[in-house]
Design the sequence.
C-alpha cells in the first residue's frame, strides 16, 4: 500500500527561538482515508506532537510504550490544546504496553497487529531500533 509522504517540518522565526516555532503539518496518507498507525513511544518530546498531528488528521494511533503515562493523562496535553481537542485526540489513541528493549516480547505483542504506518520514535541508540529475530 502506498502511503505517500508522512511527516512534518518546523519553521521558526529564528534558530534561537525554538519555542516560537510554528509547525507546518504535512500528513498525506492515501488522502481521505483513516489509517492505523503505530507510534513506538509517543508520550514525550516529538512523539507527543506526532501523535497529536496523526490523531488530529483522523488516523487511529496506537502507542507502544511502558504505559507509565496512560492515554488521557493531563500531562500529555500539548500547549495550546483545548480540553475538547485533547479528548478528541484521546478517542483516536490507544496503548499496547511493552518494553521496546525486549525484542522478543515486543514481536510477540505486535505479531497479530496490522498497521498502515509505523514510527519508531523511542530509539536512543542504534541497537534500540534493531528487532530480535
Sequence:
Amino acid at each position: 500500500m502506498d502511503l505517500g509522504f508522512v511527516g512534518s517540518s518546523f519553521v521558526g522565526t529564528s534558530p534561537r527561538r525554538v519555542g516560537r516555532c510554528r509547525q507546518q503539518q504535512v500528513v498525506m496518507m492515501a488522502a481521505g482515508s483513516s489509517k492505523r498507525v503505530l507510534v513506538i513511544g509517543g508520550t514525550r518530546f516529538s512523539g507527543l506532537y506526532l501523535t497529536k498531528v496523526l490523531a488530529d488528521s483522523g488516523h487511529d494511533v496506537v502507542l507502544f510504550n511502558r504505559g507509565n503515562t496512560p492515554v488521557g493523562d493531563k500531562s500529555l496535553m500539548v500547549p495550546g490544546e483545548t480540553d475538547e481537542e485533547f479528548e478528541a485526540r484521546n478517542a483516536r489513541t490507544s496503548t499496547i504496553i511493552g518494553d521496546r528493549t525486549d525484542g522478543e516480547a515486543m514481536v510477540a505483542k505486535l505479531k497479530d497487529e496490522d498497521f498502515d504506518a509505523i514510527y519508531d520514535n523511542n530509539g536512543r541508540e542504534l541497537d534500540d531500533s534493531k528487532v530480535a529475530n
About this structure: The radius of gyration is 15 Å. The first helix runs from residue 45 to 56. Helices lie at 45-56, 83-91, 103-110. DSSP finds three helices and six strands in the chain.
